[in-house]
Each structure stands twice: as C-alpha cells, then as structure tokens.
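Q: Could you fold this chain for me?
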Amino acid sequence: MKTIKIAERSIGPGHRPFVIAEMSGNHNQSKQRSLALVKAAAEAGVDALKLQTYTADTMTLNLSSDEFYVGDSDNPWCGQSLYELYEKAHTPWEWHREIFDYANSLGMLAFSSPFDETAVDFLQQLDVPAYKVASFELTDIPLLRKIGATGKPVIMSTGMATLAEIEESVTALREAGCEQMVLLKCTSTYPASPEHSNLKTIPNLRDLFDCQVGLSDHTLGIGAAVAAVALGAGVIEKHFTLQRSDGGVDAAFSLEPAELAALVEEVNRAWLSLGEISYGCAGAQAKAVKYRRSVYASADIAAGEKLTPDNIRVIRPGLGLKPKYFPRLLGKRLRKSVTKGTPIHWELF
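A: Sure. Below is the predicted structure, expressed as structure tokens.
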C-alpha cells in the first residue's frame, strides 16, 4: 500500500507517526484561548491541529423532544439538548482562518472535520490540506462524496461502524475521487476504556481496505496510542486542552500540554523501536559481545599440565573459547605455559 502525503508530510511505513491535536470545543468559546491552544500544541511537537467545522443549525434542530437530548447517564453530556451542546462546542467559522494561519506559522498543518456540505465549501475556500471525517458522519454518504470530490487526502474515524458500513464509505470516497485515505480505529465513547479499544483491529483495517491506518484515541493517558503504533498505526489523533480543570465539552478526556508532549515523544519512541527483523550483534550491540562468558585460565598453568575445573573456568569477558567447549577442554594439555587470566584459545594446544 502506498504512502500518502498531506502537504509535505508523508504518512506510512518508514515515516514517524503523524500526531494530530484535536481542539474540538475546548476553546470554551474564547478565541484567545483557541490561539493559546494552538501555541500549546505546537510546543508539544504535534504535526497537525484539527478543528471541527459546524454550527448548531448545521448539526441538528432546536427542539425539546426527548430524542434531541443526550440521555445516556454515562455520557459526559447527559441532560443537554443536542442544539445547546453544539452551540457551546462549535468553533466559530470566522475564527478558522486566523487559527489555521497561526498554526501554519508555528510549523503545524491545520485542517478540520466538516459536518455538512456547506462546511466543505467553506474549508475549500481556506485551502485546507486534508479532511477528517468524524466517526458519526461515516454513514453520511452524500457528505463523503462531497469530501472525496475535493481530491484532498481523507482521514476517517471508523467508530462503531460495521465492516459493511466502512466498505460502503470507503467506496463512496474512492469513487468520488479520493486517492489518499487513512482509516482510524476509534471507540466512540467518551472517555473510551482500554478494554473496549480493540487495537488489534488496526492491522486488520489496513489489510482489508489497503490503506494507511491509525487511532483516534479517546482513552485517558497515552498507553493506547503507543500500543497502536506498535500495531502499525501511522496516525494518532488525541483531544487536548490547556487544563482539564478549566472545564469544556471535551476536557474530561483531553490531554494537557505536558501529556501531549509525552504522547509525541513516546509514540515516536515506539515507532523507532520497531526497526526491522534482526538477530545477532549488529550495530550498537557489537561492543557488548566481549561481555559474554568464555573459557579463561583461573590459575597459572604450566606447559603440559592437564586442564581441570581448578585451573580453567567459564567467566566474563567473552574473549576466549565459547562455554560450550569447556567439557571438551577438560583433560587436555597446553603446549605452552599461561598465566591466570589468559583467555583459552585453540592455538594454545
């Protein structure tokens, strides 16, 4: 499967993980705070900043019937109407350009998740380098066709989607013109528990859909992201905030700046540690060979004297014969004298 490129950044085998910092609604409706979040993400070393582009009116209807309220007791937004939630969480569209420009000036890519076709048109005007499809929008085939037709790379979270739904969505994107795609394993609970993350799905997604893969991580901490890289994830997406104690729609499952920096460091460390299939002592290990065990004279030995456990031993360092030869050496006689501490070699016989 081919490596994909978002702007000048390559994603795929041989390239370090592409880390996306998801601002979501953690700006708490403060543009100043949104810019502070951009700076914090850049200082943490992430590759890209991601927004969400919608309004309450493009997401839902302002109605008070039960189905327009979040009712799950274990949901962090329980009791709120969908309209009120999206009104609080949306990033004002008039902020986007300034946020994107600031992110670019700090060395990050910046793009967004559009939640309807008008958002795609708006983001096209801003010339975003890629699109993200949120897991709940995966089944919105008209939206996916609109996104795919832009020809931009697409990163799509799979969430609770069935294989059939993912197949339908991938097909829609590709038929519309999307040639570069990343599928993210994602557990659509907030926060997600490690035991329900099922990261073994990541290489399966890669093999089934012949595309690059990654993780949109809603778990607390960074362990799942590190494990995902070990399983082949080339993209890691994580929500972040300045301080969880500040509150915000996604604060409870977001990383703080120091944790985000640790995520970047540890997923890169995990990627570097993968290396390749390797045996033996190549590279840095070569110097360590001398600290293996080998056969040495443990006493002064005269020429012609018989070798016994009293005058030869298997010890460190490893500059003599390998330990496997020790039984064969017992009873043999050296042709010349050696002093205690001499490594035993065949040429001494």
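A (continued): The mean pLDDT is 94.
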